[in-house]
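Anyone else keep sequences and structure tokens together like this?

Example one:
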Amino acid sequence: MEITGSCHCGDISYTLDWGSDPESIPARACDCSFCRKHGGLWTSSPTGALEVRVRPGGAGDYRFGTGSARFHVCRRCGAVPVVTSEIEGRTYAVVSVRAMDNVAPDRIQEAAASFGEEDLAARLARRTRGWIPVVRFVELP
């Protein structure tokens, strides 16, 4: 299944090759302060591949807490369609379900998620197991 998504203005967009055609898309509603304030609802496919396209100057980034996650924030519209984490020289990612363009809402299976008690090692291990393991960034003209 190929899933597309973008920020509101389109300066940051993505295509996620899920790796299969799932009946439902699991979505995590993280309870950290950033995600609560931004309506963060994230998904990933540990067998998927992600292409992120960014217009020049279109993306800023925000990090907090451990600094191990990079929130890709659109500089024009403020949306956050992608989060990445660099782990042992490899980029892993999750995408915003709210930024998806072509997934019917009834396919989304939302669940609460709380990661505040994880230490950094446990957090990175969880990401290597569950986040999208193939991530490519493309700068658009």
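And example two:
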Amino acid sequence: MEIKTKNETKTAVVRATVPLRELPGVIGEAYGEIMAYFFRTGLSPTGFPFVLYGNDDMDALRVEMGFPVDREVKPEGRVEAGTIPGGEVLSEIHVGPYTELERTYTPVMKYIQEQGLAVTEWMYEIYLNSPEDTPETELRTEICFPLKR
């Protein structure tokens, strides 16, 4: 685990409230819509895809799914402008299937509690490679908990 400073990031996102069990399909649809938006507008992602979780209600997760961009997004359909605020985050890399993320979340949550860290109500995951061209066992996900200072 590492505490790092992240810069504020402009994003192109699709927002939704969804049960956890439906999230994988919703993420795929959202990324597809954003990629089609990029194709139509000439905008390009400047980094890896992410999901920002606005709460921890597994029956009604508030999420923003998207990509970082280098200029403002003009809303079109469900694609909107977003921002990942800058600041310090507790970061950890999960290696393996998305279905096993809890294996990494458990020690991160324990560390937060043991260290008395104050974290925001929201957090995000950055997907550092793609299941389309990476074996499940080699998938890399950066888990980021923004710190309150």
